[in-house]
Amino acid sequence: MRYSTETEILIPFHDVDSMDIVWHGHYVKYFEVARCDFLDSFNYGYKKMAASGYSWPVVDMRIKYVKPLQFGQTVLVRCSLKEWEYRLKLDYVIENANGERLTKGYTIQVAVDKNTAQMCFETPKAFRELLAHKVGPLE
Q: Which CATH number fits domain 3-134: 3.40.630.30, 3.10.129.10, 3.30.70.120, 3.10.100.10?
């Protein structure tokens, strides 16, 4: 199953360094903005997560910096679902207006039961149901 969303981001001045390029740590923020849009697209944003009794901490992340992002540049961040059965793996691609890949990466999150603080070994029903409602039957 493939499902993705796209988020447009205008690079703000406060994200660049003295060389007028985005400081490497801000890429994590752009992934987070895209991830929030992705989760909101099927009504499982962070508030809904908490209300369903789970938190989803990031346990692994990778970023490959291909070309620098610059102040005033508009970029598109594509967030794609790669795994959902036992953990949430999302892939990210940041492209410029011409479709040129500038950055890619992924995050892995696991569900943690807020009452017991125990990691879940399968994706909670609330997540699966909302995703299936958006994309159809999960395979």
A: 3.10.129.10
Amino acid, res. 18: S
- Per-residue pLDDT of 78-134, as tens digits, reads 999 999 999 999 999 999 999 999 999 999 999 999 999 999 999 999 999 988 888
The string of DSSP letters for the chain reads --EEEEEEEEPPGGGB-TTSBB-TTHHHHHHHHHHHHHHHTTT--HHHHHHTTEE--EEEEEEEE-S--BTT-EEEEEEEEEE-SSSEEEEEEEE-TT--EEEEEEEEE--EETTT-PBPSS--HHHHHHHHHHH-S--
Q: Does pLDDT of 1 surpass 80?
A: no
So where are the chain's domains? 3-134
CB of 93 within 8 A of CB of 79? no
pLDDT score recorded for residue 139: 65
Of 83, 79, 56, 78, the C-alpha closest to 139 is: 83
